[in-house]
Structures are given as structure tokens and as C-alpha cells.
Amino acid sequence: MPERYTAGARALQDRFDTRRLADRLHERFVEHPRLGASEKALVERLPFFFLATADAAGRPQCSFKGGAPGFVRVLGESELCFPSYDGNGMFLSLGNLAENPQVGLLFCDFFGERPTRLRVSGVASVDLDDPLTVTYPGAQLVVRVRVTAAFPNCPRYLPRMEVVEPSRFVPVPDGSAPVPDWKRAPWACDVLPAADPARRE
Length: 201
What we know:
Blueprint: H1 7-15, H2 19-28, H3 37-45, E1 48-54, E2 60-66, E3 73-76, E4 79-85, H4 92-97, E5 102-109, E6 116-126, E7 139-152, H5 186-189
């Protein structure tokens, strides 16, 4: 069995007597570099996921990525993609990809009878001329992820939830979206990008 666990993980497993359990979980739910039919269905029905990145120095970022269900697309058993919509312009997570393309994606389904959780690790890439960008109305760019490991994760602590209202800021088919109030604030309105819709108000 390839060594999946770091020395730090092994030390804690030994401290809490979970090494045997950890090895059994690795044997039974071994990571694989592809997305099966059930994983594809999960990824493509959710309206959000959590993205983990780190810069060249290892400083982490964790961000929420949201859209309409289906905004994450599985392009093949070892590739998925998602759009980057207008945000705060800092590009903290996506900026990390230029230095360190290793990413972690966490998909949580809080809404079904049985909550589900899926971890995906991969290598991300961004092509500013990616032809997929135009297939996402309102997207600034598209991130592709080559899957290196996909594995289910224990959903024991996931609460069951319901969507009260989808985000009204997800772009509609013509690419438009409402202007968030913070862009109208005096501290922000004079430094917005020249093409920002808020400048037309």
C-alpha cells in the first residue's frame, strides 16, 4: 500500500490508536484519479463548493465558489472545470494558481436524505483564452482541474439544510447580474475597473 499519510498524521493516529482504522479506510476507499458516475452527478448538481489553494510559500487560502447547479462541469473522468465570476478583484485563490497549481476541492451535499461529501485533489490551470469561457455567461475566466485524487469523505457532521433562495448575483444567460451594494460605496466606486457595470449607474 503506498504511503498516503504524512509523519504528522501517523503520529496522531498512533496517539489516538487509529492507525489500523486509517489503513483500513485507505484500503476500502482508496483514492482514484477519476470521477465516477455518482461523483459526476454530485459535482454537477451542487450550487457551490469550497476551494483550497496555497501560494509558493505555502500560505493557504480557502474560498467559497458558487453558481447555478451545473456550474462545475465534469469534462472527463479526470478533468473538471468551473467559472470565475466577478468578485472583489483581489484574485487571492486564483492568483495562487500561477505559483502553485495544487488545489483541493470540497463538495458537500447538505440537501439530500443522506448528506454526502467528496474531496477532490488536482492540478489547476487557467488559460485566459480558454474557449469554454464563452459558454459561461458572465464569467471572467475558466479554471480547469486535472483530477489526481477523488475520494468520499465521512459526512457524519454535515447538517441537513435547504436552499431558501439561490444567490441573485449568479449571472443570467445574457451574462448580466445585479451590482452589489459595496461597489456603490465611496471607498470603492472610484477604483472600480473601467468596464465594471457599476460605473454605468
